[in-house]
């Protein structure tokens, strides 16, 4: 679960205030203890709870379109099988475009 990786990173960077956005209602409900996680995710959810215990945080549900940049970067990480950190100036070209659209608060249209 990507949330755990990001929480570990924020912990290493000593970031104690977070807004966590997830695009899965099921993940949101597991993290907020509204539903029990399947046994396969017990260890991950337990680690998430442990890190969140000492943080000032808010968890929000976002649409997949609203999570487009994070989704793109996660796919880049999976494809390259590496962990990288980016700032706005070092984003891959396509990601910079997504970021610009996000800053303009433009609506995404998906065509299939």
UniProtKB/TrEMBL annotation:
Signal peptide range in chain numbering: none
InterPro entries: RNase_H-like, RNase_H-like_dom_plant, RNaseH-like_sf, RNaseH_domain, RNaseH_sf
Membrane spanning residue stretches: none
Source organism superkingdom: Eukaryota
One Pfam family recorded for the sequence: RVT_3
Domain RNase H type-1: 2-75
SUPFAM superfamilies for the chain: Ribonuclease H-like
Gene3D superfamilies to which the protein is assigned, alphabetical: Ribonuclease H-like superfamily/Ribonuclease H
Protein name in the entry: RNase H type-1 domain-containing protein
Taxonomic source organism: Cinchona calisaya
């Amino acid at each position: 679960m990507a949330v755990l990786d990001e929480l570990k990173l924020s912990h290493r960077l000593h970031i104690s205030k977070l807004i966590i956005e997830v695009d899965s209602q099921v993940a949101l409900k597991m993290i907020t203890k509204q539903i029990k996680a399947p046994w396969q995710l017990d260890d991950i959810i337990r680690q998430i709870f442990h890190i969140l215990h000492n943080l000032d945080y808010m968890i929000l549900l976002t649409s997949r379109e609203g999570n487009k940049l994070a989704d793109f970067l996660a796919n880049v990480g999976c494809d390259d099988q590496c962990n990288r950190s980016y700032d706005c100036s070092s984003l891959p070209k396509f990601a910079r475009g997504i970021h610009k659209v996000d800053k303009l608060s433009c609506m995404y249209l998906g065509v299939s």
